[in-house]
Specification:
about 0% helix
Length: about 190
């Protein structure tokens, strides 16, 4: 998404090889996140390192583990299931805003059964009064015949932001106050 020809943000989807972790383990598979997010003057606000913790670059969302009936599925390691980009639902702009929407599906493996539809909507407004408003909406809908539960207390679960580590003079805040400059989980009451 761009504003008057200047980049605002990009959506990364599909399987991307991550950088190696600090522990020397396998590089995580990265997909379905926004990076880079640009500031009003083109500066990159988000970071893309996965070495700080369990693979949550830029603006990310998701749940490390999904419970399906009586079994657990590790979505971050793609063990027993994965999130798959399905389609772009909206890509439009008018006067003062751009709207981008997409749909992902969470499937279990090896059966390939859809369990959750994930719909994302982003509204980016043009700069006004030295500010840019960005609204992000995430809607999860069960399409499973089994009981589902999310394990959101694990690092990397819920909605996360990672600020550009080269810029220590920035601050991001949310409903719970200031978020740390590294990949900080934004704890939500629904991410249990």
């Amino acid at each position: 998404i761009a504003d008057r020809g200047q980049p605002v943000l990009a959506y990364i989807y599909g399987a991307e090889a991550g950088s190696a972790t600090d522990g020397g383990g396998a590089a995580p598979v990265l997909s379905n996140y926004f990076h880079p997010l640009h500031g009003l003057y083109g500066e990159v606000i988000t970071g893309d390192s996965v070495s700080n913790w369990s693979g949550a670059p830029g603006i990310s969302w998701g749940w490390t583990r999904l419970g399906v009936g009586d079994r657990g599925v590790d979505l971050s390691a793609e063990e027993g299931g994965k999130r798959v980009f399905e389609r772009i639902t909206t890509a439009a702009s008018s006067g003062d805003r751009a709207v981008f929407g997409l749909q992902n599906v969470w499937i279990t493996e090896p059966d390939g059964i859809a369990q959750v539809l994930e719909n994302i909507s982003v509204i980016v407004e043009k700069v006004a009064n030295s500010k840019r408003r960005i609204d992000l909406t995430i809607v999860l809908r069960s399409v499973s015949s089994e009981t589902l539960y999310l394990e959101g207390s694990i690092p990397g679960s819920g909605l996360t932001f990672q600020l550009n580590p080269e810029r220590r003079d920035w601050m991001m805040s949310g409903g719970q106050g200031e978020l740390s400059p590294s990949a900080a989980p934004y704890l939500s009451p629904w991410a249990v």
